[in-house]
Amino acid sequence: MHLRSFASLHFCFTTAVGAVLLAFALQPVAYAQAGKTITQADLQARLHEAQANPELGQKLYGLGKKVAAVCVNCHGGQNGQTILEVPYLDGQNPAYLVEQIRQFSQGTRKNAFMEGILKAMNRDEMVGMVLFYEKEKLAPRPPKDAAMHARGKAYYERICINCHAANGHGNERLPRIAGQHAGYVDLTLKRYRDGSSVRSDPNMAFVTKGMSDQDIQALATYLETMP
Q: Whole-model pTM above 0.85?
């Protein structure tokens, strides 16, 4: 990419980010402005309430759909394009996603942009977004490399299946990894393996410490084809 093209792309991206942050910052009902702290218990209780009450669930889903119209600028794969450090959220487990939201909003999971966005959202917007993404579906993708796909499948069925389940959908504590784009999986697994401060988890560090770059690439290739 030419330097001028890169500069133009960077300007467009940072301008869009600034507009997003400004839009959220102007919302008068935001918890950050109200000086309140949203706890995991608050979010989980509201999620369970919405799941038990169809009318409330539908209301929050509609709110979440509006919020997701902003999220899609980074988390969507428009025209097949993806951002390396940004995962797809479609079909993600709601309880797991709620916990990640809490971590970002309180700064225990580090990402300045996400922390700023989430601090400007209220509890119902957060839960509504979770409910929206839970129902979204990822389009199936065929294998790009048959040999790497087969190697990744074998690795998954030997190691990853023990926690993330045969279908890769995880559970309340563990994320859905089925269908996740290969770039994000590759980057995240290397961060766990290499002891990055961006992502740390003792279980994942243990599991990935013996993985080669090719193991990670193969697993990432396989995961993005899982329905």
A: no
